[in-house]
Amino acid sequence: MIYWYIFLAFFIPGILGYGGGPASIPLVEKEVVDRYGWMTTQEFGEVLALGNALPGPIATKMAGYVGYMEGGILGSVIALFASVAPSLILMILLMVTLLKYKDSPKVKNITKLIRPVIAVLLGAMTLQFFMTSVDTSGSVQTVILIVISYWMLEIRKIHPAFVILLALAYGGISGFL
Amino acid sequence: MVTNKKMREKSSGTSSLKVNADIFAAFFRIGMLGFGGGPSAIPLFHTEAVKKYKWMTDDEFGDTLALGNTMPGPIATKMAGYIGYRVNGIIGSIVALVAVTVPTVLLMILLLGALQQFKGVEWVNNMSAAVVPVVGVMLAVMTWDFLKKSGQSLGWARAVLFVLIAAVLMEVLNVHPVFLIIAILLISLLSFKKGGAS
């Protein structure tokens, strides 16, 4: 029965959470804390804070971890599957349908009209990231990191992996400088 | 070209292994380097799928991202699962999903005990904080790419107008992007004009 509950607890946020994983976290909390009582609000908050310090999608990290705590490895697999599969299957079906008609002018029009929307969404995320950085690292550090990472990524064309690793290393030692 | 490549590589077993290895490597990197949850990994998806492996064009990437946003659920796994599916069918989809989720879940399970001790330790928090502006720069570059493409295909006057309308709707009036994207889908599919002025 626990496996069924684990499935439901992550299926529901996966199917109701619009705006990516981070947007579904309050829904996950509602299931895990309020409905099933697997964790207290404080425990959930602590796990979330630690999860945010690690790389990777947050929704699957939370699902995999809570699933493991409640139902071992099988629980972890079920939680991951429940949070990921339903929306992915929908996505594949829709994209396959759309690609079938990709040469029709109507579908081409979609691409054209959607670009400005994506630009705004990405622009908003950009601002959000810069503002978060100013809040946590201060404006001087933020500007320095922006200038250096822009120079590395766009002018020197260094792979983002290296730039991110350098930023991690810099962050790690910055407190001791 | 993408489909040719896909067909060719599907036809022989050894190169299918190579494709799966590529898929795994690409999405493993995305998972391990995406600090700040799935949405912050979007520029990394773009780097791997469009620039490095050329599995899709910029436009296809934009469409995938837009449609991904109309559907519920985590964005990173929808992108990974779909791109994997496109490159190598259901197997590719599973490989991509495993690569983007399992390593970080394992890290989470294995490190949680150890991490409890590091909680609030300044240099650990500083590490994640230093990545934030880097992701900001990658997002800014992608934003500019999409703006430029909008300008080229719609004409700058119309592109700027659309961007302003989208910005006011989503950021000022807080209309959820889902509604905007669905509206664009409906308008494009139902309109009888060809509307292709470029």
Overview in brief:
The complex is a heterodimer of chains A (177) and B (198). Chain A is mainly α and 177 residues long.
Describe this structure in words.
Chain A has 177 residues and is an all-alpha fold. Chain A folds into two domains: 2-100, no CATH class; 105-174, no CATH class. Chain A has helices at 2-16, 21-35, 41-53, 58-100, 105-137, 139-155, 160-174. Chain B is an all-alpha fold. Chain B is built from eight helices and no strands. Chain B has helices spanning 2-11, 13-33, 42-52, 58-70, 75-118, 122-154, 156-172, 177-190. In chain B, helix 2 (13-33) packs across helix 5 (75-118) and helix 4 packs across helix 8 (177-190). Chain B is globular.
Topology:
The complex is a heterodimer of chains A (177) and B (198).
Chain A: H1 2-16, H2 21-35, H3 41-53, H4 58-100, H5 105-137, H6 139-155, H7 160-174
Chain B: H1 2-11, H2 13-33, H3 42-52, H4 58-70, H5 75-118, H6 122-154, H7 156-172, H8 177-190
Helix pairs in contact in B: 2-3, 2-5, 4-5, 4-8, 6-7
